[in-house]
Amino acid sequence: MRISEEQVRYVAALANLALSAEEILRFQAELDGILAHMDKLNEIDTSGVEPMAQVLFEAEESATLRDDVAVPPLGNAAATANAPQAGGGYFKVAKVIER
Amino acid sequence: MHIPSLTIDGVRQSLLAREYSAVELTREALRFAEAENPRTGAYLHFSPERAMASARIVDERIARGADPGALAGVPMAVKDVIITKGVRTTCGSRLLEHYVPPYDATAIARLEEAGGVILGKTNCDEFAMGSSNENSAFGPVRNPVAPDRVPGGSSGGSAAAVAQGTAVLALGSDTGGSIRQPASFCGVVGVCPTYGRVSRYGLTAFASSLDHIGPFARSVADAATLLGVIAGRDPCDATSAAAPVPDYRAAIDGQVKGLKLGLPREYLKDLASETGTVIERGVQKFREQGCEVKEISLPSTDYAIASYYVIATAEASTNLARYDGVRYTIRSVNSGTLADMYRNTRGEGFGAECKRRIMLGTYVLSHGYYDAYYLKAQKVRAMIARDFAHAFEHVDAILAPVSPFPAFKLGEKVDDPMSMYLSDIYTITGSLAGIPCMSVPCGTTAEGLPVGMQILTRHFGEPMLFRLSGALEQQLR
Questions:
Q1: How far are the Cα atoms of B61, B218, B265, B378, B418 from residue B314, in angstroms, in the given order?
Q2: CB B444 within 8 Å of CB B185
Q3: Does residue B267 sit in the same domain as residue B402?
Q4: For residue range B93-133, what is the model confidence (pLDDT) as tens digits?
Q5: In A, which residues are within 8 Å of B343 by CB distance?
Q6: B378 part of contact set with chain A, CB < 8 Å
Q7: Which of B249, B334, B364, B414 has the fewest C-beta atoms under 10 angstroms from its C-beta?
Q8: Does B326 lie at the interface with A, CB-CB under 8 angstroms?
Q9: Cα–Cα distance between B103 and B91 in angstroms, integer?
């Protein structure tokens, strides 16, 4: 196994994802199969190749910049309208001081 | 008016000849779509008020003799990952079941400004993650050509609506094939434009360096018109391209004689199937038209799946972090602390495929694995992009399959995520390179299942795509 049950729990914690015991076992097996395929990446020589993080084209340096003009924002009421709990223009959550 | 056979030009002529008004057309199109939708489940919900409001604007423009717009009165569908102000946008997820966006995507604003009429929002795999539309929290979509089969994914609902005739045009999104593959499976035209050609503002983010919005249509000309409307620089998306938008319709001129077309040997070697036979017949049509077809090589192809699924899941795990129970409608009720609320909301809300990709993406970005997987995958991505750049020194466009097989049966592949990922091989390479690609109907199998041919070309070479696909469409008519 490329990935242990403990690692699955660790990754789930990093991802803020509550998983059932059954899901942990299933993802362990599935991720193992997928990572076995990903290991194919080790077969190819990439020395001297720059990583490609974004599709880039020939363009002026300023091509991605917009004019520095303020535009009206959404406003708090619209921005919080989909929140499960909101009030006074803020998102409401449980107290964070007591963990 | 026969709704399933409408075209952009036909609607325009009828409106200008006062055969019917946009309001009358919209009412009839909504009635037809709502009546026919249960056969496929292509639409998740309809937006009649918004559609009627758009139609009234078109009628008002016509009444005062103004240009009603390039898409005047045309009934359209929009994949439910593209946000629509005041109209529910679920992304096929329980987490966003009740989400009503506060603004419009730029593509939506542009197509409505051009007179397009949005009838409703279409089903898709949850957060656009899937190749069969079976990952939607609201049930699968049936392929209108063969109801026991999938429409493809993730934009399955948009492809199905256009194929079924309940929309003339649709918008989809394509990250690794999510427009091209369902277009192929349903027998319609689907275009994944150059990365940055269409603004992503208001497209719910899956993998930001790979996401595209693009058109579905029943003809190449209609797809070209829709792309022309939605393409162009948008100050709200810094990755949108400033390059001028040419007249895509004008490129459909039948002038393909002498064009050089490449067949990648890495794609065709495994294609000893019916799909391969149909593609070969399409290639022959180009030869008969005087195109020079030659074999080319894209040597890094074997590594594309691994590169794509590392990069796409890494970006997805980051983008989906925002669904934490704070801002977007659903919050787990069984949680004492904030941290538990995050974990439980996400654990209860995401479906299996989203969880799988969040886990994989988090893993490949985590300490100790970043260099081995994520950085390595980005280097391989650069090599794949370089393969295409080299190929386009010798050919004007590349012809390829879209999928190794035609539409498969519902449930057939749902238990094997890796085999589902592997079936994306022909579409993800173009996505990684950010080049424009499309699927155009190329024929059917003996069983009558549609097979699309993929055409790929250089960055901003969309006119070449439309020139070639238009010629193929003409030859197969």
A1: 47, 35, 30, 11, 17
A2: no
A3: yes
A4: 999 999 999 999 999 999 999 999 999 999 999 999 999 99
A5: 16-18
A6: yes
A7: B334
A8: yes
A9: 16
How far B462 CA lies from chain A's nearest CA (Å)?
15
Q: What is the pTM of this model?
A: 0.97
For residue A67, the chain B residues in CB contact (below 8 A) are 235
**Residue A37 falls within a domain, yes or no?**
yes
Asked, for residue A23, whether it belongs to a domain, the answer is yes
Residue B406 included in any domain: yes
Q: One-letter amino acid identity for B352?
A: A
- Number of folded domains that form chain B: 3
Read off the CATH number of the domain in which A18 is found.
1.10.20
Which segment of A93-97, B279-283, B290-294, B442-446 scores lowest on mean pLDDT?
A: A93-97
- Which among A17, A42, A63 is the nearest to B355, CB-wise? A17
Q: How many angstroms separate the CA of residue B317 from the nearest CA in chain A?
A: 8
Residues of B in contact with A3 (CB under 8 A): 363
Q: Is B132 a catalytic residue?
A: no
pLDDT in tens, chain A (99 residues): 789 999 999 999 999 999 999 999 999 999 999 999 999 999 999 999 999 998 877 777 677 788 889 989 999 999 999 999 999 999 999 888 765
Q: Fill in the DSSP letter of residue B187.
A: T
Asked whether the beta carbons of B285 and B148 are under 8 A apart, the reply is: no
Contact A3 B326 (CB under 8 A): no
Is residue B446, in this structure, part of any structural domain at all? Answer: no
Q: Please check whether residue A16 lies inside any domain of the structure.
A: yes
Distances (CA, A) of B356 to A18, A34, B314: 13, 10, 12
Residue of B302, B341, B363 to mutate for A, most A C-beta atoms under 10 A: B363
Same-domain pairing of B158 and B89: yes
Determine whether the interchain pair A93/B336 forms a contact, defined as Cβ–Cβ distance below 8 Å.
no
Specify the pLDDT at position A98.
Answer: 61
Q: Which two tokens stand for residue A87?
A: 């009030």
> What is the C-alpha separation between B36 and B43, in angstroms, rounded?
10
Is A94–B303 a contact, with Cβ atoms under 8 angstroms apart?
Answer: no
Q: How far apart are CA B397 and CA B157, in angstroms?
A: 29
Nearest residue to B111 via CA among B213, B208, B36: B213
Domain that holds residue B433: 260-298+385-439+453-476
Q: What value does the mean pLDDT of chain B take?
A: 96
B110 part of a folded domain: yes
Shared domain for B280 and B227, answered yes or no, is no
Cβ separation B102–A79 shorter than 8 A:
yes
